[in-house]
Amino acid sequence: MNKITTNFSKNTFHGTEETIAAISTPFGESGIGIVRLSGPMAEPIARRLFKPKKNQSLFISHRFHHGEIIDPSNGHSVDEVLLVLMRSPKTYTREDIVEIQCHGGYLVLQKVLELALAKGARMAQPGEFTKRAFLNGRIDLTQAEAVIDLIKARTKEGIDIANQQLRGWLNKEMVSLKERLINHLSLIEAHIDFPEEEIEAIPQSQMKQDLMDSVQKLEEWVSTHEEGRVFREGISCAIIGKTNVGKSSLLNVLLKQERAIVTPIPGTTRDVIEEVLNIHGVPVRLMDTAGLRKAKDFIEQEGVKRAKERLADADLILLILDGSRELDGDDLEIILEIKEKKKIVIVNKKDLPPKVSLEEIKKRFAKDPLVSISAIKNEGVENLKEAIYSSLIHRNIRVSPEHLIVANIRHKTALTQIKEGLFNAVKGLEEGTSLEFIAFEIRSALDSLREMVGETTNEEVLNRIFDQFCIGK
């Protein structure tokens, strides 16, 4: 498979001779919408379309200019705009960039984009602006991935983790590790290639200690992935139980709004209702499902079917039992079905006289958290939120340069491979293995490191990463 090498010098900014254009703001109506161009034709295209309010023969880079976009075919004004030209290399892509700030109507933006395309630009592909920033050496691949994480973040903690990566904290650690590994490898290979020369002896104890320290750091970063992934991607959480145990009431009280219809009639919820809740920075996609019982009609049967599908896919189950009624066959059937699932057991309706013993419930669910609540009176709900968070996050997460959080599975995989290579090298040094073996393991670790930051990355991986982006970023 083809490899893409991104070892660009600081003076290499062209990347491609094509100029791309796209609408960089969401479709719809808004106060402002932006059409963005990047490439060698960005400024010439802007000059053909833009008529400044004041006579200006020269654009000043990184300054706003007030004027109109004119349709060259008839001389009519399309929109009054602010235009900013940013000349390379001090731009997002390290190419010339033009951003045209229009009024945020879809037709206006589409017309400005069409004029730019007619004058020599081509439509940008998803993520192509960020891809050019990566290919032109402005950011590494981990930082490029952080851009999409920042756009998609749904909580402050998700933003913090994405910004940590975007600021290059992980990249700095990788650059430092790479330099040390290259130094070790150079010394080893000199001894292998020139055994007859009087080369300074390899300080094996110092090398072994440095590699072991690196292994421990890598283990720490890899160990943060599960929590980091939860903050980055969130979890799906299915509210499960038989009819009329209070599933919809719980959804409403968690969301603090009347999202689901609540009635005393069994089987009111027919479809799966989904909403996202922020629990201490974790995006939790709550799914209120139809009551699991033998369906009375085709519509309820479909609702039960969908509930079971969500049950199978959910990361966490909220099993609700009605504390004011004794457990029956429907409860026991549900309990058996979710036996192996990660779950929190909720005994609802604590405001009513109890008909089921909490001790009995604890015996049935010895390994699962148990919370007693009254959804209708909003009692015990904060304890439930704490239980949800504690079941997902098992450490104090603090985002800082000293505490890297690895949220991306690609990064976890690469760091694990680096760690394994260095561990094997340490083991080889301890056992007196040949220098060729030590060099091979360090080279393997370097290969994984270079692929992680995008110095050598196959085209399939790049396409998969940048296809996640929206057009215009």
Widest β-sheet, arrangement of strands? 4-5-6-7-3-2-8
- The count of helical stretches stands at 16
Radius of gyration: 29 Å
> What is the CATH architecture assignment of the largest domain?
3-Layer(aba) Sandwich
Helix content: 40-55%
Instruction: Domain count, please report it.
Output: 3
- Secondary structure class reads alpha/beta
Poorly predicted runs of 5 or more residues: 1-15, 259-271
* Alpha carbon gap, first and last residue: 27 Å
CATH superfamily of the largest domain: P-loop containing nucleotide triphosphate hydrolases
What are the salient characteristics of this protein?
Four Helix Bundle (Hemerythrin (Met), subunit A); 473 residues; 3 domains; alpha/beta; 44% helix; seven-stranded mixed sheet
Can you describe what's shown?
There is one protein chain. With 473 residues, the protein is α/β, with parallel strands linked by helices. The protein folds into three domains: 3-140, 2-Layer Sandwich (Gyrase A, domain 2), CATH 3.30.1360; 147-224 and 401-453, tRNA modification GTPase MnmE domain 2 (Four Helix Bundle (Hemerythrin (Met), subunit A), Up-down Bundle), CATH 1.20.120; 234-392, P-loop containing nucleotide triphosphate hydrolases (Rossmann fold), CATH 3.40.50. The chain has helices spanning 42-49, 106-118, 128-135, 141-152, 156-166, 169-193, 204-223, 225-233, 247-255, 298-313, 329-337, 358-364, 381-392, 409-431, 435-453, 459-466, and strands at 3-5, 20-23, 30-38, 50-52, 63-70, 77-86, 97-104, 122-123, 235-240, 273-279, 282-288, 316-322, 343-348, 370-372, 456-458. The strands form three sheets. Strands 4-5-6-7-3-2-8 form a seven-stranded mixed sheet. The model is unreliable at 1-15 and 259-271 (pLDDT under 50).
